[in-house]
Amino acid sequence: MKIKNICCLGAGYVGGPTMSVIALKCPEIKVTVVDLNESRIAAWNNEDLDNLPVYEPGLADVVQEARGRNLFFSSDADQAIEDADMIFIAVNTPTKNYGEGKGMAADLKFVELCARQIARVAKNDKIIVEKSTLPVRTAETLQTILDHTGNGVKFEVLSNPEFLAEGTAIEDLLNADRVLIGGKQTESGKNAIQSLVDIYAHWLSPKQILTTNVWSSELSKLTANAFLAQRISSINALSALCEATEADVDEVANAIGTDSRIGSKFLKASVGFGGSCFQKDILNLVYLCRYFNLPEVADYWEQIIVLNDYQKHRFARKIITSLFNTVSGKKIAFLGWAFKKDTNDTRESAAIYVAEYLIEDGAEIHVYDPKVSKEKIVEDMRYLWGLKGYTDQKIESKLSQIFVYQSHEDALDQSHAVAVLTEWDEFKMYDWNAIYANMYKPAFVFDGRNILDTEKLISIGFKVKGIGKG
Ligand code: NAD
Ligand code: UDX
Q1: Per-position DSSP letters for 110-146, written without gaps between them
Q2: Which residue, 169, 208, 237, 428, could crosslink 17 as a Cys pair with Cβ 3.0–4.6 Å?
Q3: E strand or H helix at 7
Q4: CA angle 121, 124, 125 (to 5 degrees)
Q5: Predicted local distance difference test score (pLDDT) of residue 151
Q6: Which residues bind substrate (predicted)?
Q7: For a pocket test of ligand 1, which of 7, 9, 14, 19 has the largest count of ligand atoms closer than 8 A to its C-beta?
């Protein structure tokens, strides 16, 4: 089938950029992105391209070219579903925070709602594409819902997981290492796969487009994220050993990364990985392994998360012990709150957990992030403390220990210590002499990303602690 009309359910970090690029590269296809969240749709339609709901380098240019031509953002999901030949499901699949599988399993209620809505509305045959990250065998569930509540319409379900990383989403979409398309190995399944291959073939070469059966595709997404996160936890585990032995973790990473069998990427030691994907997807993988009665396999993957939690707390503890065993009443300046540079996304950011640990010890946290608003930071902390069951009164009292600024100078002024939580490039350019002059002495820098020039900082007078630096 030649696709003329695409609908995408979910206008978030994946749905928005992915559909923008498809629309850019396939001008003959109408692409409509819908969302339950009307304010998010309004923001995608914002005239001011600096205020799109997702910040990604290059995204505004793509939206500017395609929006209104063949790319549309709408709240009328029923109409978009009815008109579409192909429907992408790109809704959130967070970790369940209630009931069966709480804290581990993926919450598929949003995906299920999409399937029920499609089944209710559809009047002609459609291809349904899983773009959200889903547990292996979800396509079977979707097919069951679609087949049993539909209007005699035929649905083909494909799996097409997204591998983009935030901060480089547009580049990743335009120059993907690969796209993966899984489908049934029947004639109609193969035809559906071909329809999606034809879309990506507008800008990717055949060797960048992999096709598999549905289950391999679904499982490959969880596996890819588990492998990537495992490398970070491995180097972070070694960073602790480096600190105990005076080895330098960046030198070790460089030495092992030049072995072509190991490779150099994803070996940057840090305060711990964050983001909406790694933790959620590994917990989901662990849950699946336990479900299929594979406890040793589950324990193996779970250790990645255990180590990541250890790394975040180890960083926070180092701040406390270095500041003479207490941060009570002390001003700790945070440079960065986003989970990585070049994004406004803060989901599962290490900063949240480091802040919580220090606030428990009585610290005042003074934050500056180039792209994250005060409202978002407050929302992150409220959510965390809400999950812990804290009363509103207790939450408000703890929030009074957090301050957010529009400039780094204000955040750093009269602070006892600086902690770098995100690797924003601008932090390297600051006037560190001026910063030192306005801090309490001894002035500490805790570089959770190993991005600052340690020797220069020491020569200014700072006491510097990096990750994995003896
Ligand atoms: P997100 O929270 O930014 O966006 C999801 C959107 O779906 C929200 O705006 C929400 O309002 C909307 N939504 C929920 N139910 C809906 C419904 N029934 N109809 C219409 N809209 C609905 O999430 P995201 O980061 O874009 O992630 C989406 C999926 O993609 C997840 O499964 C995630 O694991 C996966 N993924 C994310 C990334 C990433 O970097 N963020 C990368 C690869 C894969
Ligand atoms: C990840 C995957 O990379 C992507 O393929 C998938 O589609 C979604 O999940 P994302 O979470 O957006 O992407 O960013 P990523 O670059 O993977 O970084 C995740 C976290 O790991 C960040 O907190 C980052 O700072 C951290 N990280 C990354 C390290 O600490 N060290 C590294 O070497 C790499």
Answers
A1: HHHHHHHHHHHH--S-EEEEE-S---TTHHHHHHHHH
A2: 169
A3: strand 5-9
A4: 110
A5: 78
A6: 162-166, 221-225, 261, 268-274, 339-340, 449
A7: 14
Mean pLDDT of the chain: 97
Q: How far apart are CA 457 and CA 453, in angstroms?
A: 6
Q: What is the reported pLDDT for 149? A: 77
Give me the interface pTM, i.e. the ipTM: 0.98
Ligand 1 pocket, Cβ-based, cut-off 6 angstroms: 9-15, 34-37, 40, 77, 90-93, 110, 113-114, 132-133, 162, 164, 166, 276-277
> Could you confirm whether 26 is annotated as catalytic?
no
pLDDT at 65 (0 to 100)? 98
pTM above 0.90, yes or no: yes
Query: What stretches of 58-206 show up as alpha helix (H) in DSSP?
Result: 59-66, 77-83, 109-121, 138-149, 169-174, 187-200
> Distance, CA 274 to ligand 2 centroid (Å)?
7
Q: Whose CA is nearest to atom 34 of ligand 2?
A: 266
What domains can you pick out in the chain, each with its CATH number? 5-204 (3.40.50.720), 246-466 (3.40.50.720)
Helices (H) and strands (E) in the chain, counts: 19, 14
CA–CA separation, 100 and 160 (whole Å): 27
Q: Report which bound ligand comes closest to the CA of 232.
A: 2
Point out the catalytic residue in the list 7, 26, 114, 277. 277
Look-up: residue for tokens 């809704």? 91
- CA neighbours within 13 Å on the CB side: how many for 238? 16
Alpha-carbon torsion (459, 462, 467, 470), positive or negative: positive
Q: Residue 281 CA: which ligand 1 atom is closest?
A: 34
pLDDT at 470: 77
Q: Using most ligand atoms within 8 A of CB, pick from 339, 349, 421 the residue to mutate for ligand 2.
A: 339
- Per the CB < 8 A criterion, the answer to whether 13 and 169 are in contact is yes
pLDDT at 356: 98
pLDDT at 409: 98
pLDDT in tens, 416-439: 999 999 999 999 999 999 999 999
Which amino acid residue places its CA nearest to atom 20 of ligand 2? 273
Q: Which residues of the chain have pLDDT under 70?
A: 150
Check residue 283 and give its pLDDT. 97
